[in-house]
Each structure stands twice: as structure tokens, then as C-alpha cells.
Amino acid sequence: VRRFFMFRITKSEGVFFEKFEEAAEKVLECANLLFDLMTNYTDIGAKIKRIECLESDCDSYVHQTIEYLNKSFITPIDREDIFLIAKETDDVVDSIEAIAHRFAMYNVTSLRPEAIEFAALIPQSVEKLKDLMYEMKKMKKSKKISEIIIEINRLENVGDKMYRENMTKLFSEEDNAIEVVKWKSIYELIEKVLDNCEDVANIVEGVVMKHA
Amino acid sequence: VRRFFMFRITKSEGVFFEKFEEAAEKVLECANLLFDLMTNYTDIGAKIKRIECLESDCDSYVHQTIEYLNKSFITPIDREDIFLIAKETDDVVDSIEAIAHRFAMYNVTSLRPEAIEFAALIPQSVEKLKDLMYEMKKMKKSKKISEIIIEINRLENVGDKMYRENMTKLFSEEDNAIEVVKWKSIYELIEKVLDNCEDVANIVEGVVMKHA
Amino acid sequence: VRRFFMFRITKSEGVFFEKFEEAAEKVLECANLLFDLMTNYTDIGAKIKRIECLESDCDSYVHQTIEYLNKSFITPIDREDIFLIAKETDDVVDSIEAIAHRFAMYNVTSLRPEAIEFAALIPQSVEKLKDLMYEMKKMKKSKKISEIIIEINRLENVGDKMYRENMTKLFSEEDNAIEVVKWKSIYELIEKVLDNCEDVANIVEGVVMKHA
Fold first, then answer.
1. Span A8-27, pLDDT tens digits
2. In terms of CA atoms, which chain A residue is nearest residue B210?
């Protein structure tokens, strides 16, 4: 399972990194759109539709990556890691889409300021995820890669704290049970996106260690 | 990890496919019972008990498959794929059982028509899953296999849409918060079963690609 | 992937088992603290902080194990199994911490007796998990190992039943929807911890089978 030879990437091997970069760009677009939806809370239906389209594009990249993986004899990093990075990146975008859908499904008419502040972490974390995907192919020489991973972990920790604060505020201030149900669910999903980003970062960290 | 020789299955290798077929038959029985429970909403306790028994039978097949896997030197498809197919099939039946239990746990006295329509997708998808298990052993020659996988994916998409429509209806029409909590949870589980079926189909798709 | 030689563990290979033991000790401390928090429901904030610290210690062990794994050429059991045991043990402690946080987040002022009875299964199951970690390195000769695994499975089944009973009681007796939301969520997490313990036990069972 381990690879001991020099880390030189051939053109066909490089395809994996390109797919990861393309997928990450789409995830970032999705994350930015979600934040735009939340800060400019109008035309919700149309904005959700655009997020759906981007999620579907991202799906295609993931599918192409796995298809390419199943046809490749040699891979630049372990097969399992390619599979996991593709799968977990897909989870990030799925969770972002899930949040967007909730605003329509739960018939949310106005946003809580603390929800917006919390969700602002999503584009920040996904931006770092995108940087990580671009650094991966030069991991042997990259000085930035561990900084990026630490930053994604830091954002997840900040998110954990905000998640708990928002929940505490929700349960101590909101009397309408249906509102509690809606926002509890949305907060859980925001926290999940940040977790998903950290999962990708942790897999990449493992890959870097193996090649160190 | 890859296998390059001709895809010929010996008798002992064939055991894996038989176990998958047997497990799938039990899952289908479970799915049909759940739908029967929902359409003939009487004797709930007895019907749940029967679903529990079938889930337990299905558990045994999964356990036998993994036990057999751990003792086998040669497998007809990658070890990880056998493990994943067994595990994800188990997830399908676990989620079906979980739905059945909810009707008792949540003290549900009458069913929503849209819930029944939504849940009708479960036996449809599991029926296809069973077909898939029977086609797997002849994957090299099977023309049906990709049709089946596409159909399972299509049913998951239909389910996604119905899930969102049912949720929107629930949150816009139901004033009783406890009813909202109950049905939100049931809808999430119905959607999960369809996701679980798609997960199995996607793993089989990967297996077919590797052997193409 | 399989190992056919005699099961003799070198000093450097033994590190994996030591890390599992150390992590399990921390998980048990966490489980006991959670139960103490629930039975002596005072100083909640301080008790949660201590659980957080222990969870963070446990995280370090898991991280060290995976780091060590990525640097090791030879491992006493399959690489995937080491990774999975580390990851699932982390899930146990994460779920325990999540329960503790909920008491503060949901502003829970008094505990239900049936919740305490249910949660009492957690230290019982984690105690067995710790025993399992100590038996793993002598798996060839251990007579206790299968007893322990059976006991963890039994506790999960008992938990499943209690989970359903507690939910039934909650939905039939509680009129306050927000209380229903809180306790539904806490019960789901208690059941999840017992599931996570069973997951670890099942992986170890697979490891034992491979080496039988």
C-alpha cells in the first residue's frame, strides 16, 4: 500500500489533482452562493436552484475522478485516499446544498444574525480547502500545506464553539417550538459542513505524512 | 488490489454472491412489510416484530459474509468491496427497521397520505437492489446491470424531490410542533433508505468498472 | 493484505496496542464523568470542561496512533483495522462529549430518571471496551476476548430496547414540544455511543477472525 519511490507525477497521474482542484472551485462557488443567499435573503428559490446546479457539477467531477481511478493502474497517492478525498469533498457540497434547501423547506422568513455570523465560517473554510487542493500536487515542497490544514482545523474549532453558543441562545430565548426545530437543524448542518472540511484536511494530512 | 486475470468464479468464490442474493431477498421482504404496515395501519406491534425478525435474519447473512471473507484467500471481487456491499446492505435494512419502530415510538395514530406515497419508493428501490445482486455474478455479460443502477439513482432523485415537498408541506401546514418533530424524523429516515440503496448501487458500479 | 506468519509482536509493533489501551482509559474516564454529571447534577459547567479536556487527550492518542501508522512499514494487524479502531474509538468519546454539551446547550434543569438508567449503560460498555483493548495484544491466547465482544453486543441490544421505551414514554407523556426535542436528541446520542462501542468491538472481532 505504501509507495517508496520518488514523488514524481506523470501527466496521467496529474489528472487526479486537476479534478480535485476543479471540484474545489465548484464547492467554493457553492459556499459563496449560500452565504450570499443568507446575507441577501431575497429570490431564495432562484438562488437554491443555482446551488443545486453547482452541486450537480461538483458531483460530475467526483464521479469522473472515481471512474478515472477505477481505470488507472498507477496513482500518485494511495487509491483509498483518492477515493476518500473525492467522497468527502462531495459530502461538503452536499451539506451546503442541504442548508440551502432548508430555508425553503422550513419556510424560513427571516434570518437570525447569529446564524449568518456562524455560516460565514463556511466560505472561509472552503476557501482554505481550495488552497489545499492546489498545494497537494507539490506536497513535497509545499510550506503552506500544514498551515492550511491547521487553519481548517482552527475554523472547525471556532465553529464548534459558535454552534454551542447559538444553540444555547436558541433554547434559552426561543419559545416557539417549531422555530427551535428549524434552527436546531440548520445549526447542526452548518457545523457539519465545517466538520466535512476538516475531514478532507485530515485525509490530506495523512497523505502528506506518508510521503514525508 | 486490482485483478487482471479472467473473471471466472469458482464455487467457493460464488458463495459471496449467494449471500448477497439471500440478504437482498430478506431486505425486500422487510421493505414490503414496511409498506404493508403503512398502507394497512393495524396490528402495528405484530408487524414491527416481524420486521425485527427479518432484520435479524439479514444481519446473520451479513455476518456470515464477513466471516467468510475473513477466512477466504481469494475473492471474486475486491475484499473492500465485499465488505462495503455487506455493510451498506445492512444499513438499508437497519433504516427500514428504524422507520417501522418510529410508528410505535412516536405513538403515530394516523398516517399522512403523502408519507405513504413517499415510502412507496422504498420497495421499488429495494426490488431493483435485489435484481442487482442477482446480476452481479454475471457482470461481464450483463446488459441489465447499468440499467438497474441508473434506475436506483433515478428513484433516489425522485425521493429527494418528494422529501423536500413533504417537508415544505409539513412546515407550512402543521401547527402542532410535536407532529412536526415526528414526521420530520420519519421523512428523514425514508430519504435515508433511498440513499442507502444508492450507496450499494454505487459500490457495485465501481466493481463493474474495475472488471470492465 | 493478509498476514500468514506467526503472530509475534515486536516492541515497535506493540506501540499500537499501548496507544489503544491509553485511549480506552481516557474514554472510560470520560464515560464515568458523564455518568457522574448526570447522577450529581451540579457544577455542570465545570464537569463539561473536564470532559472536554479528556476528549482532547483522547484525540491526541488517536492522532499519535495514525501518525505512527503512517510511518510504520510493519504493523501487527492490518493497517485499515488500526485506522478504523482509532477512528471509531474517537467517535465513542466524541459522542460522550456531545451528550455532556447538550445539558448546557439545551438548558436542561432536571434529569429524567429513565435517562439516567439508560445512560448507565455507557460506562458499562466502555469498561468492556477498555478490557477489549488490553486483551487485543494476546488475541491468539485470549479466552476472554469473545466473551467481551458478546457482552458489548448485549449491552447495545439492551440499549436499543431502552432507547425505544424511553422514546415511547417521552412521546406519550410529555406535552411540551421543546422538552420532546431536547430529550429525543439526548436519547439518540446515548444510543449512538452504545452503537459506536459495538462498532469498535465488531472491528476487533474481524481482526481476531483473520488471525484465528
1. 567 778 889 999 999 999 99
2. A70
Residues 6+ apart with CB under 8 A from C151: C128
- Chain C positions in Cβ-Cβ contact with residue A180 (cut-off 8 Å): 177-178, 181
| Number of CB pairs, chain A paired with chain B, less than 8 A apart | 32
- DSSP secondary structure letters along chain A: ----S-----HHHHHHHHHHHHHHHHHHHHHHHHHHHHHS-SSHHHHHHHHHHHHHHHHHHHHHHHHHHHH-S--SS-HHHHHHHHHHHHHHHHHHHHHHHHHHHTT--S--HHHHHHHTHHHHHHHHHHHHHHHHTTTTT-SHHHHHHHHHHHHHHHHHHHHHHHHHHHHHH---HHHHHHHHHHHHHHHHHHHHHHHHHHHHHHHHHHT-
Residues B161-179: tens digit of each pLDDT? 999 999 999 999 999 999 9
Whether residues C168 and B66 touch (CB distance < 8 A) is answered with no
Residue B175: DSSP 8-state: -
Q: Is residue C136 within 8 Å of C204, Cβ to Cβ?
A: yes
CB-based contact C186:C115 (threshold 8 Å): yes
Pick B67's closest partner by Cβ from C1, C181, C209.
Answer: C209
**Cα C84 from Cα C88, distance rounded (Å):** 6
DSSP letters, C73-100, are S--SS-HHHHHHHHHHHHHHHHHHHHHH
pTM: 0.92
Output the furthest CA–CA distance in chain A (Å, rounded): 62
List of chain B residues whose C-beta atoms are within 8 Å of the C-beta of residue A71 = 209
Those residues of chain A whose CB sits closer than 8 Å to some CB in chain B are 66-67, 70-71, 73, 79, 101, 104-107, 177-178, 181-182, 185
Does B4 score more than 60 pLDDT?
Answer: no
Q: Average pLDDT for residues C112-118, to the nearest whole number?
A: 97
| Interface predicted TM-score (ipTM) of this complex, two decimals | 0.90
pLDDT in tens, B20-64: 999 999 999 999 999 999 999 999 999 999 999 999 999 899 889
Residue type, B110: S
Which grid coordinates are listed for C42?
451540579
Does position A1 have pLDDT exceeding 80, yes or no? no
Contact call for C106 and A167, based on CB within 8 A: yes
Residues of chain A found within 8 Å of residue C101, distances taken between Cβ atoms: 164
* Residue B174 DSSP label: -
- For the record, the C-alpha cell of B105 comes out as 415510538
